[in-house]
Each structure stands twice: as C-alpha cells, then as structure tokens.
Amino acid sequence: MKTIDFKELQATVLKENYCSGCGVCTALSDGAIQMEINSRGQYFPKKIQSKQNPQVVCPFADHQTDENFLAEEHFHDGKTKFHLQFGFYQEIFAGYVADENIRLKGSSGGGVSWLTNKLLDEKLTDYVVHVKPSTGKVFFSYEISKNAAELKEGSKSRYYPVSMNKTLQFIKENPGNYTIVGLPCFIKGIRLLQKSDEIFRERIKYTVSLFCGHLKTTHYTSMLISQFQVNEKEVESIDYRHKIPGKPANEYATALKLKSGEILVKPNKELFGTDWGWGLFKLKVCDYCDDIIGETADISFGDAWIPEFVRDWKGTNIIVTRNPELHHLIENGIQSGELQMKPLPPEKLIESQAGGFRHRREGLAYRLYLDQKNGRWTPPKRVPPEKIKSKKRRKIYELRILLRDISLYSENYKQPELLKKEIMPIVHKLNKVYEHSAWTKLRLKIKNLFK
Ligand SMILES: Cc1cc2nc3c(=O)[nH]c(=O)nc-3n(C[C@H](O)[C@H](O)[C@H](O)COP(=O)(O)OP(=O)(O)OC[C@H]3O[C@@H](n4cnc5c(N)ncnc54)[C@H](O)[C@@H]3O)c2cc1C
Questions:
Q1: Measured from the CB, is residue 279 less than 6 Å from ligand 1?
Q2: Residue to mutate, 107, 117, 178, ligand 1, most ligand atoms under 8 Å from C-beta
C-alpha cells in the first residue's frame, strides 16, 4: 500500500481541513506528530520535531485503496454477501440486550457494551479500547478497559471529538490482543495502519464500528451547556443520549451532571442547534465520508430508528456482522436469551439511515463537483463528482455547507442568542426549500390523480 509523508498530508488533508482527528497519523511517527485540540474545537495533528518528515497513514489521504478494497481483504471468505450501498455483511440483526441494566445504560440497545463485555469475559480479548468520560481537560477520551467494571463507564454515544493517539501508543508498547470501538473513519484508519505495521496487524484482533451521521467539535458541547445557564467548569459529565421513558427512542434529552452532584435534564427539542439535519459544528471531513455504517469493521452497531422499533424508548440496535467469530457470539447470545434479536432485511437497514445515505452519496457527489469546479483537492471517494439534477437538492446541500461553515468558525458558540442570529436566516431558507418541495410533490400527486 502507498504510504505518504507528513508534508503531503499537510498539503492535502490538513490544508483543506479534511481531518477527523483519529490520530492514526501519529502511530508510525515515533513521537514526531502529536494531536491537539485547535481553536475550532477539533483534534488536529501537529509536527513537533521540525526536521523529520515521517511516513503516515490517514483515512482521508490518497493511499489508492478504499473501503471496498479494505473490507474485501478481511471479509471476502464466501460467508459474507455484498450490498452495493453498504458493502460486505454476513447478517443484519435488530434488537436489544435483554438485561435492562445494560440496555438502559446504552445509547441504543446496549449491544456494544454487551459484546465488549462478552469478549473480555470469555477471554477472547485482553483490552477494549473505547471512549470514556475523561478526568482531564476534555470531557471524553479514548481509554483502555480490562474488565467489566472499567467497561461500564464507557457506554453511551459521545458527540465529542476524540483521538486514538495515546491508546495506539499503548498498544505499541504493551503486547496483548485488543478490541477497538470507533467511528467508521477511525476503523478505516486502523485497517490502513494494520496494512503498514506488523504490531498493529497482530495485536488488534477485533474492530467494532458505530454507524455514523457525523462527529461534532467541542463547541457543540459548549453550545449545549450554555443553554443550561451553567458555567462549563461546573460540569462533571454530559449525557447526549438521555432516554426519556414513554417517548420514541429518537426523542431523547441531554443531561448534565454537575460537580455539585446536581443533574440537569433538557429534552433536545427544547435545545437550540440539536437538529442533526442542520449539522451545526459538524467536522468538515464528515461531509467527505461515504461510509455510514463502518464497512471495514468486524461488526457494526447503529440505531434502529424505523417505525417497527423507534417507539420503544428503551432503545434498539441494528447490528451488521462480518467476522464469523463475532457473528457466532451474537447468534449464541440470541440462543441463550441474552440478546432479543431477529434478522433484519437490508432494505430496513437502508431505511434506518436514509438521510445519511442521501447526504453522503448524492450530497457528496454534488460537494465533490463544487470543489472540483473550484480547483480544490478532495479526498479520493467511491462516489464520483456530479452536478446532480435536482435544483432543490442542490440548494439543500449548498445551505448545509453554509450552516456547517458558519457554525465551525463562529465565536458565539457559548452565546446561543448571538449564534441564533447567525444560523436562523440560513435555516429559514432551508425550510423554504423543503416547504417548496413538499408543495411540488403534493401538486404532482393531485395532477397524477386527475390523469
Ligand atoms: C458521533 C456519533 C454519530 C453517530 N451517528 C449515528 C447515525 O447516524 N446512525 C445510527 O444509527 N447510529 C449512529 N451512532 C451510533 C449510535 O449512537 C450508538 O452508538 C450505537 O447504536 C451503539 O449503541 P449501543 O447502545 O449498542 O452502544 P453502548 O452500549 O452505549 O456503547 C457505546 C460504545 O461506543 C463507544 N463510543 C461512544 N462514543 C464514541 C465516539 N465518539 N467514538 C468512538 N467510540 C465511541 C463507547 O465507548 C462504547 O464502547 C453514532 C454514534 C456516534 C458516537
């Protein structure tokens, strides 16, 4: 596989801010590259030894290999099928963990916590590398869990930037076998690392991906906290996916635990900027990703927000298995009653992530077309650039770029009233396009009816 040097990374990925902060670029650099949170509130690599120009791998650099190629190397064994939209899979399941202690603590059905616990319990892995509340300056970070008690603190989805740099260093220095939980681009980075370095190839035994809409900068968290009228310094931890009994699973709340012990909860419907479709404080690179479910991972977990399951406030997972050993664990879990799960047809998976697929296939094609027109370098993608036909969809994607960029560079992330003044004019325009397209659809329906 073609590796690149840091200078090339700087001239391409970093220059245009196509960095997800995964930290994979630090792993081969012998300490020459470090990750830091920058003024936009996202992790970014920094070269600290100026004379060196280390070789790096990066999920958004041009390594002349893509998700299909990487996945095929691992999963093309006759047991897996291939779907044009989401790649290799052995089986798709929907359901939840029967033990309510695990399910209610998880974001969806608690599947990731159950699986990682099982892997430790059955000694199939020595270490689980995942995201937990941090005791340092940041709210969350990648940490290593060796037993059930340590693992427990790591459930729930964290809409917060994280980097694997320190845990990759730990893996390098400590023999053992590891399971890594990460977002799709982080797992792609791990696969690239495994291709370039024997230690990572041997020690990382399993990869677990979360489905991913997009990741936020730290400013998203600051914006949420500011709407509780508390100072960020008073906050001990934040739960972005607080479940509300009786409400549909996608109508969750944000909960803050203050250092005083007090817990404050607000439904997301009452919090400005939480509409995922607006994409406020979204990392720019998330608009240049075409892997929604973590196609290169051994197993992937997402939210089953489709009519059949969304009404259950306790949460339901969609699971995509690829690695036969992990598939077997899931099947055993179903047989023993630890997992309440059933196979799900591929169309249902696509339905559950319909917005994500649209935005990062059709939308990505249009964004790549716009960049190409402006002579900008873009990460190589499986989706070709295209000036899509629908004028309305083009407008929607253009307005979303504006929302992303205005929020990314806004200095008003701790002042919701000022932020609203920047954001709402664009949101009104976006709503008008949606209203207009709803009217057009209705008019066409009536016309067809008369025909
Ligand atoms: C940024 C982000 C965007 C997402 N977007 C979508 C989406 O568009 N559609 C969808 O269906 N699902 C999405 N998910 C996944 C979903 O929210 C659940 O995480 C998933 O269904 C697993 O739920 P669970 O109850 O099985 O996990 P839990 O049992 O709650 O365990 C969660 C695991 O994920 C790890 N984790 C938490 N946050 C991060 C993070 N930022 N990076 C890496 N690991 C982390 C935890 O350490 C833990 O091991 C997203 C998650 C994140 C973090």
A1: no
A2: 107
